[in-house]
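Possible regression after last week's pipeline update?

I re-ran a chain I had predicted before the update to compare outputs. Posting the input and the new output here so someone can diff against the archived version. Not blocking, just want to make sure nothing changed silently.
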Amino acid sequence: MSRRTTTSRTRPARRQTTARVITELSGPAICAVTGLMVVAIRNAGSGAGAAWGGFAALFVAGVPMAYIAKGVKDGKWSDHHVTERAHRAIPLLIALGSVASCAALLAAVDAPRELTALILAMLAGLAVVLAVTHWWKVSIHTAVAGGLLATLVVLFGSWALLGIPVLAAIAWSRTVLDAHTWPQVLTGSLLGALAAASVFPPLR
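New output (post-update):
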């Protein structure tokens, strides 16, 4: 076997490995929790902020991921990304209900306004993704990442746009793994960013 042949076979394998790593590190739960912690710490100081963010993370990431993990264990879906579009409605509804409950609880206990605004922005993004998913397999990875990027731009200004290459890498990873097409990842990015940019600024 020639060196050229070996190299040509190694490159696709490396692309797949890189894409998998990026996909796992940028999962919707991870991006959502990142946004929560940034906003919580920004508003309440490191100690209290972490507590507020942790409380919200239980509803935003913990409950939905626990439900998905149980579904994978029970054989309802093949993996924690819920690859089949037809299987995504129920997990998204569970996430929607959990995030809505979180928003209500935060409002009731007078949590930092910016944190509640972020939860409501996430709720709006989930509702849009759920609606689109009924007909089309839009990327949840890029929707949540796009929402996070838009939130960071609102909070920190144009410097946050340096995160665009990260969003592009996430989109690339989903296409390399054949989880989505480029229109699906681009649409996800736009939907997530628009939901965050429309809901978060006026409510914060």
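Follow-up from reviewer: compared with the archived run. The chain is about 80% helix and 0% strand. Marking as no regression found.
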